[in-house]
Amino acid sequence: MGTTVAPQQELGIRTVGHFIDGQFVYDADETFETLNPADNTVIARITKGTQTDLDRAIRAARTAFDVGPWPRMKPAERAKILRTVGDLITARAPEIARIETADTGLPIAQTGGAQIPRAADNFSFFAEMANHMDGAAYHSADYLNYSMQRPAGVAGLITPWNLPFMLTSWKVAPCLASGCTAVVKPASWTPLSNEKLAECIRDAGVPDGVFNIVYGAGETIGMGMVKSPDVQLISFTGETVTGKAIMREGAATMKRYSMELGGKSPIVVFADADYDRALDAAVFGVYSLNGERCTASSRCIVERPIYDRFVADLTSRVNNIRVGNPMDMQTEIGALIHPSHLASVLEYVEIGKREGAKLVAGGGRLPGMEHGNYMRPTLFADVDNRMRIAQEEVFGPVLVVIPFDGEDEAVRIASDVKYGLAGYVWTRDVAKANRVAQGIHCGMVWVNSQNVRDLRTPFGGAKESGIGREGGHYSWEFYCDMKNIAIALGDHHIPKFGMA
Ligand code: NAD
Predict the structure, then answer these.
(1) Pocket perturbation via mutation, ligand 1, pick of 225, 233, 237, 255 by most ligand atoms within 8 A of CB
(2) Which of 51, 115, 158 to mutate to test ligand 1, by most ligand atoms within 8 A of the CB atom?
(3) Which terminus, N or C, of the chain has the lesser number of Cβ atoms within 10 Å?
């Protein structure tokens, strides 16, 4: 049974507690460790959730939804509180960025410069959206029908280890804005920044029970939420195989899902593209965020006339990427999340070599930095799209380059993969850009652009990259039930059964 008293800090390593019904809950005897990927030292112990913890969290979220003030508040009042959450994240951004970098190995310039500010933006954006719930009215002579969006209930939010703070905010902000209540199950490799999110949410005045966190294994805590009849919604971000397992289990309690899954997104570079900008985007699109990015442009498909030059320029740029201590502001690639993930990415490098792809940059650990999960950014050229390194999600700083001839082949190669999350197209020909963007089978395409998010637009994938869309009013389709109310305006005919 947990306690709300934090255990004594031992040798500078503290214990992080769940957040249940407005309180941090600890259990010093049941913990797991989280490591700093820069040197694989233990940086905190995390309270390991039990079924009892999960039941308490779900009960708190259920009660907050069924009888609490949150779903019944005026949207403007919810908006005010959520705006404050965003402001508190902004005020604490440097501290949160340091925690996030220590826990994930992501470069501080990228957590502090982009990911934490984006998390704050998610709260301020969805605070405004709370005032824009959709509805419709259908008039006729004797009836008025009106349809309105109502919060659906308790949401189980299951998050991955890449970009934990930003991705959690991407779920929590629309969830709370809609009036739903939440139980978050963070990824076990990156739990730390969740504590800061809980503090910001508590300090902003979100009522107790509306937002809860339970740490622990996916198979127990994550699956426990999926199986619970008191949880209506599961918003899951993670691997496609995990998403499939969740959908199978959730069928028994008729869950509604938002599934943000894996990707193997193409960047198509035509010979008539703005060459320098396309090169910048190709490098940034896969090597930023350590390559641990769902929308990474990890397949670079280049038109034959510029292919050799593009590969040569990619090679020199990749060899120049600064890999190092994630806390150094100059670092462009930090340390991969975990030794076992590093091993998996390095195994893909070996697979690529065995498949006959040409290794032109990187391909191994960073010499002299074996104390952490560092690897050299890696580039394979002359890749055949049927190779495993072109088809499977590596989720690290590894780019494959594939040549193509003509528009049709570009679209065919770009779509010839089981995933369909994002795509990127580079050409100066507007009509061709639109044809190719429309032709690639995926959820989102950026034309002559890196991955820049407009929070109003639908985010999500096709094929095995996911189900559903989140962003703007698309988030309401997940977090809300559309309810129709029909009102008779006069004395319409009612058949009289059972009359004598
Ligand atoms: P993962 O599937 O291993 O884990 C994700 C979460 O699910 C974790 O919290 C984990 O504990 C939990 N989990 C694991 N098994 C579970 C089970 N049986 N039941 C319930 N929950 C379970 O994914 P990961 O390795 O943490 O994250 C990387 C993956 O996430 C990559 O495939 C990446 O592409 C994907 N991703 C997708 C998006 C997107 O928006 N499409 C964004 C970021 C990451």
Answers:
(1) 237
(2) 158
(3) C
Is 402's pLDDT higher than 90?
yes
> How far is the first Cα of the chain from the last one, in angstroms, to the nearest whole number?
65
pLDDT recorded at residue 300: 98
Q: Which residues of 85-105 are buried (b: 16+ CB within 10 A; e: fewer)?
A: bbbbbbebbeebbbbbbbbbb
Q: Write the CB contacts of 106 (distance below 8 Å, at least 6 apart in sequence).
A: 100, 115, 163, 289, 290, 292, 326, 334
Give, using CA atoms, the residue closest to atom 35 of ligand 1: 238
Question: Which residues does the annotation mark as catalytic?
Answer: 260, 294
H helices of 146-222, where?
164-178, 193-204
Q: What tokens does 336 get?
A: 């991969």
Of all protein residues, the one whose alpha carbon is nearest to atom 43 of ligand 1 is 294
Total residue length of the chain = 500
pLDDT tens across 364-379, in order?
A: 999 999 999 999 999 9
Strand order in the sheet with 444-447: 358-361, 378-381, 398-404, 299-303, 266-269, 422-426, 444-447
pLDDT for 6: 74
Q: Which residues line ligand 1 (CB under 6 A)?
A: 158-162, 167, 185, 187-188, 218-219, 222-223, 226, 237-239, 242, 245-246, 260-263, 294, 393, 395, 421, 461, 465-466
DSSP 123-147: HHHHHHHGGG--EEEEE-SSEEEEE
- This model's pTM is above 0.90: yes
How close is the Cα of 242 to the center of ligand 1, in Å? 7
Give the pLDDT confidence of 3-16 residue by residue, as tens digits. Answer: 887 776 656 788 99
- Residue 65: phi and psi, rounded to 5, are -80, -45
Question: Which whole number is the average pLDDT over 313-332?
Answer: 98
In this predicted model, what pLDDT tens digit does every residue of 88-128 receive, in sequence order?
A: 999 999 999 999 999 999 999 999 999 999 999 999 999 99
Q: Which residues pair with 3 in a beta bridge?
A: 26
